[in-house]
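Record pair follows.
FIRST:
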Amino acid sequence: MSQYASVRYLVDDVPAAVEFYTRHLGFTPGPSANPAFADVLRGPLRLLLSGPASSGARATPDDARTAGANRIHLEFDDLAAEIDRLRAAGVSFTGDVVTGPGGSQVLLTDPAGNLVELFQPAGR
């Protein structure tokens, strides 16, 4: 059994996706079969980046290939500082920070349009 929880994102450009996740969001590169497939790791999360030539993408029905409302959820101790760092690096967000009883969150998209949620729990 793997030590990771794995999530598959379909991407149109595997090298661009690897660059985005490793440069901006603290992932480290994992095994790769570029340009068809690569994975990146962050803690117990293994993010599978499947390009159009990968078996994971080919197994996906055409009507389910667009980026959806599902997203990975990355937790940070200082969301404002993380937003400032990413904005300085040229990353744009899909909206403003939303705060609720559980904490604060903001969404951004990877180069393929997949959503990523940055989250800071309440009280931090």
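SECOND:
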Amino acid sequence: MSEPRIKAALWVQMALRLGASDGRPGMVIRRGDADAGGVVVLLRGRMGIVALSQTRDAAGRAAWLRATGPDPVDEARADEYVAKQMRFDPDLWVIEFEAPDYLPPFEAKLL
């Protein structure tokens, strides 16, 4: 049995508040569907950007995939990834955080 799905807008609000309370300011780059949109999280640090995409682990639990690879990429490559995802999911949310260590400010299983 999988975890209950949280509405996208509520999840984004929670993530931004956690970021603010952790000293990792975040912002909405693109608003998606309030109920069912997917989320891409951009983590910005000195060496570039890491994009995280929602996924599920082998047991069906929520997890995050380092969608642009293990190393930071430049802004153009991150923008290309987001544009590609938006073609598949027009309801997509994109949020960005200042993250010098490239870790999200919310609890996340990273794959």
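COMMENT: The mean pLDDT is 94.
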